[in-house]
Known about the structure:
Largest interface: A-B, 49 and 38 residues
CATH class of chain B: Alpha Beta
Mean pLDDT of chain A: 92
Distance between the termini of chain B: 24 Å
Number of helices of chain B: 2
CATH architecture of chain B: 3-Layer(bab) Sandwich
Helix content of chain A: 25-40%
Distance between the termini of chain A: 30 Å
Structural class of chain B: alpha+beta
Oligomer: heterodimer
Low-confidence stretches of chain A: 1-13
Mean pLDDT of chain B: 93
Amino acid sequence: MRPPCPSTYERGWFQMKxxxxxxxxxxxxxxxxxxxxxxxxxxxxxxxGSQKIIEWAEDAAIEQLTNxxxxxxxxxxxxxxxxxxxxxxxxxxxxxxxxxxxxxxSAGMTGFDINCGIRMIKTNMSYEEVxxxxxxxxxxxxxxxxxxxxxxxxxxxxxxxxxxxxxxGAEWAVEKGFGTREDLLHLEEGGVxxxxxPEKVSPEAKKRGMPQAGTLGAGNxxxxxxxxxxxxxxxxxxAYGLVKDNIVIMLHCGSRGFGHQIATDYLRILxxxxxKYGIALPDHQxxxxxxxxxxxxxxxxxMKAGVNYAFANRQVMTHRxxxxxxxxxxxxxxxxxxxxxxxVCHNICKYEEHIVDGEKRNLYVxxxxxxxxxxxxxxxxxxxxxxxxxxxxxxxxxGTASYVLSGTEQxxxxxxxxxxxxxGRAMSRKKAIKSWHGDEIRRSLEKEGMLVVAxxxxxxxxxxxxxxxDVDEVVESVHAAGISLKVARLVPLAVAKG
Amino acid sequence: MDYEFLDFTSDVLFxxxxxxxxxxxxxxxxxxxxxxxxxxxxxxxRTVEIACSGASLEELLYEWLSTLxxxxxxxxxxxxxxxxxxxxxxxxxxxxxGRALGEDATVEKGATLVKGVTYYQLKVEKRDGGYAATxxxxx
Lengths: 498, 139
């Protein structure tokens, strides 16, 4: 197996992995001394995953966990999830929490795609009912939900509307007729993060955001029709409204160019802040500012605007998805049982209360390619699910299974209320394009009973199933570690990609 | 060679070359837009003025590419031709004025979405009487 990036190769392939210590079933520690350069690690690293997951993990991603462990105010340990893979600064599939007084807030640790996340919409239709119409359905979805580079939204926000999107998120979309108030009761944060400040968002970000609301984007973002293949937990499945063999829709997207621009703007601002506050950085991409500083709080307020934009974006697309089903089945979406199951954010920074060493503390929790997994009884779990725990939505790669999991107390105790987010990339896009042609992948998936529509065959090749890790192994790891529990396995029937 | 792509698991890493600073920046822009769109079929029929600055050539390159990306999304255009009119140094800052030419973005000519230019492995080196720049893009 070749190293994933040149820096790893130069430094020796298994230098970090050799330092891992098993600290329990599916738990590994990267000891404090693992990083031998300045700045030194303040806390250890922790990885959740089976032996196989560790074999798959890139040394460079593990090294990134040790880099983050050097930052001021880091609490307990940096956490790598089983879907860990190299990212900018913080790896994807990682969680890091910082003290509200001594710690930092980082744009690099939230990622370019602020509030990239997953929404699931249920239906009351069985696979047998939908099967004959799948092709028609996926084509209607592809037509109605703008996707791909160069696509245009039907919705053009005015500056006033964008202001409302930034502060009110999905609530704005519902008020405009894109869904119902009931939808809002089934979203993380109720679809709006309080404290977003449009003044902290640049004119460029606003200009980029106005034409893009209601668009899927491209790359690994998708819209998929899935069948509930297997239920593992009858009580939780019932609470979530999941029925075996019924059809659900999974939507994966984020805050589009609006969020990308906020990230770009604040990488510059926080780059200056690093120098101003004398923070020793092990990696330029980890630019950050003290949590109590003006720059840190400005980023947090701007990031929330990005978070709300993504919530509104997924809400508008929910409406388009419902319209598409209505168009094909000639029935109201309510009649088709198209309620929102849940909506999770997996690129985000949250201000949360956690218990650390028996003490209640307020922390800035950065989840990059990681999902909140709050337990039964937690006040931030929607009332409808409070008795069983928060739904966790995990996307597989194209052509592979996805999962619905449930948050646990173990996640609160061990991983700052977090779990994995998906499969995690294993092969570069360049290599994927060289290895396969999109049309071959499309045909082979069709033979297996899955339709793919995309703007170009290249996108299909880039996202080929074999370019990703095995999502089943990732999910088995978090389930075995108890940081979230399996509720349902979903298999894809048709996917629309950007 | 104007530019080449290097193997990189998560995203895109490229190396652009130029006999001078201007050519280096132009070739880096071509590399980035060859990821975003089918650059060979994008007609240079509309012009957008670009101005940016940075404390070093590396920073200027980062700002140039980030500004181009921002402008292409704001204007909903793909760019295929780039010109640097002036690079000047004042108060320890390098400033640039240039132009990007292209046409309205369409799905047919679109390729891969670039979320942003990153600092990862960002490097400008002088070599063989010219320049080489390494840039990674988050896609």
